[in-house]
Amino acid sequence: MSTNSELIASAICVSNLNKTVVTQEGELTILNGINMDVKQGESVAILGPSGSGKSTLLGLLAALDTPTSGEIMLDGVELSVLNEEQKAALRKKKVSFIFQSFMLVDTLTALENVMLPAELAGVIDAKSKAENMLERVGLGHRLTHLPKQLSGGEQQRVAIARAFICEPKVLFADEPTGNLDSVNGEKIADMLFALNQESDTTLVLVTHDLQLAQRCARQLTMEVGHLTETTKSLPANDVHSAVEQTPHKAEVV
């Protein structure tokens, strides 16, 4: 008999994913035998220290990079059979990003930054949708401000509005609160998870912040290129404790 979770389609399915790069010292393995399955609408955090391979994995899942071997299915599409143009079209249609450094276009206003992906996707009412998204993140009074005229927290709110305007299937967030103080970081997290729940978007979050990670339904830990499921109740406040409590390496499903 199938469980409810088994009936939910996978947004991301990864099988035996490997990534190696060539250095002056020889081949360096960054990811080793990664297996994971993320259901549609699920929120998953990937924890791990710097250099553990978190951001590399995110880039592969988002079709921004190519693995050495292994299979990635994104919303039912096998990425390895796509050329670069097809990957770009897939990202435009199904994927959004939130970055630690905001990645706003300096010469565009807050409104124009949010409108941009909608216009590229051919959304007819891009302006009204962008205005609505900025209202929802509390920036209805900052529509004409350039990024340099906004605080860090406000810039990340613009980035969140931009990420959700095209109603993506999957949202990849790489350290979304990393450049913010604790107060603004918490506000941004509240906003991110509220919008994510409303939209039923699949969220894959890379972070070193354990408290932020614990707001996701599942936490995975990356350590020396291996990915493992992390226990739900982690008492410490740093990622090293998460790594210490990680069980033996196994397939993550």
UniProtKB/TrEMBL annotation:
InterPro entries linked to this entry: AAA+_ATPase (IPR003593), ABC_transporter-like_ATP-bd (IPR003439), ABC_transporter-like_CS (IPR017871), MacB-like_ATP-bd (IPR017911), P-loop_NTPase (IPR027417)
Residues annotated as transmembrane: none
Pfam families hit by this protein: ABC_tran
Domain ABC transporter, chain residue ranges per copy: 12-249
SMART domains given in the database record: AAA
Alphabetical list of CDD domains matching this protein: ABC_MJ0796_LolCDE_FtsE (cd03255)
Protein's name in the database: ABC transporter ATP-binding protein
Provenance organism: Shewanella intestini
